[in-house]
Design brief:
Length: 161
C-alpha cells in the first residue's frame, strides 16, 4: 500500500511542487518510493499552470524534474486520499482545518519538522536566490524530518483502518 503525502501551498507552482519533488527523491534514495509518494496542491491553485521557471531551475540543480508539474486545487478527494497533509503556512493550516474539520488530524505545519512554528515564505515573484533559499529550507526540513513524515503517514493510516 502506498502512503500519500500531500504538500499544500497557495498557488501550487512554487513551494509545494518543490517539496513534492524533494520528498519523492528522498523516498527513492531510501528505496521506499513504492511505499511513500508525495503529491501537491494549492489552496488557491493556478490550475493547470506549470511550476514557475525559477522553481523548475532550482530543482533541476538538484536533479529533480518539475517540468511536467501542473497546478491543482486541494479538494476533498486529495485530502481524504492523503495519509498526511503538510502545509507551508499557518493560514493554510487554518483554512484547511475550517474547510475539512474531520481531516484536521492529518494536517501538519511544515515547520513542525523542526519542532517549531513558522511559515515557509513564498518565493513567487522573487529573484532566483529566494527560490534557492526556499528550496534549501524545504530540503533541510524534508531530509531531517523524513522519518517524522513517514510516522505521521503511518499513524494517520492506522487511524483510518
Amino acid at each position: 500500500m502506498k502512503h500519500r503525502i500531500l504538500f499544500v501551498c497557495t498557488g501550487n507552482i512554487c513551494r509545494s511542487p518543490m517539496a513534492q519533488g524533494l520528498f519523492n527523491a528522498r523516498a527513492a534514495r531510501a528505496g521506499e518510493d513504492n511505499q511513500f509518494i508525495a503529491e501537491s496542491a494549492g489552496t488557491w491553485a493556478l490550475v493547470d499552470q506549470p511550476a514557475t521557471g525559477y522553481a523548475i531551475d532550482t530543482m533541476a540543480w538538484r536533479g529533480i524534474d518539475l517540468s511536467q508539474h501542473r497546478g491543482q486545487t486541494v479538494d476533498a478527494r486529495l485530502m481524504e486520499s492523503a495519509s498526511t497533509i503538510i502545509v507551508m503556512t499557518r493560514s493554510h493550516y487554518e483554512a484547511l482545518s475550517a474547510e475539512f474539520p474531520g481531516l484536521r488530524h492529518k494536517l501538519h505545519l511544515m515547520s513542525e519538522l523542526r519542532e517549531r512554528t513558522f511559515d515557509v515564505a513564498d518565493p513567487y515573484g522573487g529573484p532566483p536566490d529566494e527560490y534557492e533559499s526556499c528550496a534549501n529550507l524545504l530540503e533541510d526540513l524534508i531530509e531531517n524530518g523524513y522519518d517524522q513524515i513517514k510516522a505521521w503517514a503511518l499513524q494517520n493510516h492506522s487511524r483510518s483502518t
